[in-house]
Design a protein that fits this description.
The chain is of the alpha/beta class. The protein is built from 10 helices and 12 strands. Residues 257-283 are annotated as: Disordered.
Length: 283
């Protein structure tokens, strides 16, 4: 089992050049749980995750891991405790799956140290958990999108950190592979107690797979809590500008957001389609 780590954000201010993206944001990540960060495009979700992993330096405030500012921690010390899977990572050309997953062990190795049985065990376990053992000798660039994403997650798992940050881990995957990846992360959280923080675009998948939901709006915290507390029609309207209904997911029992859209005000779709076709025929 992993150790519960306290990951908190205190009055964080981050931007790119002259543009401020996050201004004075504070929040706490529940240890040992799955947290999903949601919000409209360009609201600061990925910027927040990159700041939490120290890829971006704050202009103000700080990110703390067990009370230590992550931006002041030695890189290898942080990498042994916190792992990051960035959005659309790029593998070196020709690298095999086993070699890529093995790179997750670099934070645990010292200068001139040899590969150990513990490293072998970590890589083998990561390949097994992600169902990528049979892919070990294949070049990463020959894999399908779903296979490649599982391999990147395997590399992050081989790092064996207590906290795992994932920036849109389901992007570019079809729905079956999205569910597959999120099921895998849930299994990891259940088996090892890994604290998982992930940015997701799909509100319903975020509600189904997370214990804790964080909704951002224009770089500020709009709401945080359980999916049932956060995912409401009022929040969807405020954060996404979308009218919706929120019902109970018949499969998971979690909140399910159903968008109304501009053309669904009680009239059935079939007559509208027929009207549109007849208008086209008259032209």
């Amino acid at each position: 089992m992993t150790r519960d780590r306290a990951l908190t954000v205190e009055n964080l201010t981050v931007g790119y050049h002259e543009r401020m993206v996050i201004d004075g944001l504070s929040l706490a990540i529940p240890p040992g749980q799955i947290t999903a960060i949601v919000g409209a495009n360009a609201c600061g979700k990925s910027t927040l995750l990159r700041s939490m992993s120290r890829l971006l330096s704050p202009r103000g405030g700080q990110v703390l891991l067990d009370g230590k500012a992550v931006h002041r921690m030695p890189a290898k010390e942080l990498a042994r405790q916190l792992g990051l899977l960035p959005q659309s990572p790029i593998a070196p050309e020709g690298i095999t799956v086993a070699d890529l997953v093995g790179r997750g062990r670099h934070p645990h190795q010292r200068i001139l140290s040899r590969w150990t049985s513990a490293d072998d065990e970590a890589v083998a376990d990561a390949l097994t958990v992600t169902d990528t053992v049979e892919l070990a000798d294949r070049p990463v660039d020959e894999l399908s999108g779903g296979q490649r994403q599982r391999v990147w997650i395997a590399m992050a798992l081989a790092q064996r950190t207590d906290v795992l940050l994932l920036d849109e881990p389901t992007t570019f995957l079809d729905v079956s592979h999205q569910v597959e990846v999120l099921d895998l992360l849930t299994d990891l959280n259940t088996a090892r107690g890994t604290t998982i923080v992930m940015v997701l675009h799909d509100l319903n998948l975020a509600a189904r797979y997370s214990d804790h939901l964080i909704a951002l709006g224009e770089g500020a915290l709009h709401a945080a809590g359980t999916p049932s507390e956060v995912l409401t029609p009022a929040l969807v309207e405020a954060v996404f500008g979308l009218a919706s209904q929120v019902i109970v997911d018949p499969v998971s029992g979690t909140p399910l957001m159903v968008p109304k859209g501009r053309h669904h005000s009680g009239r059935s779709a079939a007559p509208r389609r027929a009207e549109s076709i007849s208008h086209l025929a008259e032209r």
